[in-house]
Amino acid sequence: MIITMASALIGAVLYVLWRGGCFLPGWIIWEESRITDASGGYDISLKDKTASAAYGGVCIWSSPDGVKVQQILSCDMDHDGGDELLLLCWKRGRFGKYKPFWITEDERNWSQHIFVYEYTEDGIRPKWMSSYIGQDVAQMAFCSGKASSGRLFLTDPEGEISCWCWDSWGFAREDAEVSFAVFGDNLIHEPIYTYGLNHQGNFDFLYDNVLDIIKENDVSVINQETPLVNDPTEYSGYPVFGTPVQVGEAVVNAGFDVVTCATNHALDRGAEGIHTTKEFFAEHDVLCLGIQSAEEAERRPYETVMRNNMRFALFNYTYGTNGISPPDGFPYMVHRLEDEAQIREDILRAKEEADAVIVFVHWGTENAVLPDAFQERWTDVFLDCRVDVVVGTHPHVLQPYEMLEGTDGHRMLVYYSIGNFVSAQPEKSCVKGGMASFTVVPTPDGARVMEYDLSPLTIHWHKGGGYAPVLEE
């Protein structure tokens, strides 16, 4: 009994001391490392919680007494062309020599800081020592060589990553995540365009119910299944489509950022349909993927967009074009899932340029609720190429979505089919579609998907021919 009470008392005392800041947290990993600055002149080492720097083989600097160093970095944090030395460290109290005027006495608890030093001709000098960041940091990393370079990434003990940048005097936390909303097939059958032209005069009604969603997200995408045409004599529905250019105007008015146009109907109106579609969206600053006009003779396998200081490489492919071949001399008019070696090479190049790679792909078996062998084969290819997100269309019905993990640990989100956005197909299964939504955040080696979902969508048909795609609650 006495031993039990003594153990309990000791435990309680230790807990009080720990809560009072007398002990350092047990989750800390104390690194031992050796680095050099960009010039190669300084040799910095970390051992036994102390950092020291040598120049020309002579030790010229060491970290302050009473400071326990957890990790060191040498990087161009402030983008001035030269490295700075960063210490992730612990000391008692939150302040240094100078405190805010409203603080009368510093606390005695251990607190975590980032000290920043400059390499100068006279040695290593403090640059920024007001360094309490207000969160636990298990590891810090600096991103360089990518579109999002110049950011400091802080990982907490639970593995959550936050992004910070140098802001004139100290670090500022960035809201660096990028949200995507992706809609399925904009499949404009004859009853839809007839109603729009004769009863409304425009097609804004198709997108009225998703305007708030488009506005809320950083990048909004829709699959423009059918080619646009200017000539009313070329308006047509299934099986050879020609869609009034006014539908494109409604897509622009709704605020879509990207349209994917590599579909099996892309060549329904030949090279002229490709030209009209591409030129229209280009003139209205909507990024058009998957097709190239006759004026774009050189192959452009992907396009890039920037959001929140992150660069995304966007690809768009189709399984085929219903047996219609592009004109002679224009093999890149529609991007197709054919040359695996070339596609792998293109994705590899895109990953060197961008933080994340997203593939929009027109594939699968119509009306099938599960992916087929063709989809599974190309999914394996994309996963092997370390694509970040794949979004599929064409089956006109919803298929599963999942997060896959490669043998190297890379994670890829794939939506096999998000169904229709709008169509006049009579099958009940084709009335249901979905909106793929996902959020991408930067990481030291690129990006990762943090949140993802598929929101159901239903196409409501009204008397008189009105069509209203509505997201379900």
Structure keywords:
473 residues, alpha/beta, 8-stranded mixed β-sheet, 6-stranded mixed β-sheet
Give the tally of β-strands.
28
**What share of the residues does DSSP label as strand, in percent?**
35-45%
**SS class:** alpha/beta
Number of distinct helices: 7
**Morphology:** elongated
Major β-sheet annotation? 8 strands, mixed
Average pLDDT: 89
Helix percent band: 10-25%
Give the C-alpha Rg.
29 Å
**N-C termini distance:** 60 Å
Detail the poorly predicted runs.
Answer: 10-21, 99-103
Topology:
Elements (H helix, E strand, L loop, with lengths): L1 H18 L13 E4 L5 E6 L2 E6 L2 E5 L5 E8 L8 E9 L17 E11 L2 E6 L10 E4 L9 E4 L5 E6 L4 E3 L4 E9 L3 H11 L10 H6 L2 E5 L4 E2 L13 E2 H10 L3 E3 L9 H14 L3 E3 L13 E5 L2 E9 L21 H14 L2 E7 L10 H12 L4 E5 L7 E5 L5 E5 L4 E3 L9 E12 L2 E16 L5 E5 L2
Parallel strand pairs: 13-14, 13-25, 14-17, 15-16, 17-18, 20-21, 21-22, 22-24
Antiparallel strand pairs: 1-2, 2-3, 3-4, 5-6, 6-7, 7-8, 9-10, 10-11, 11-12, 13-26, 19-20, 23-24, 26-27, 27-28
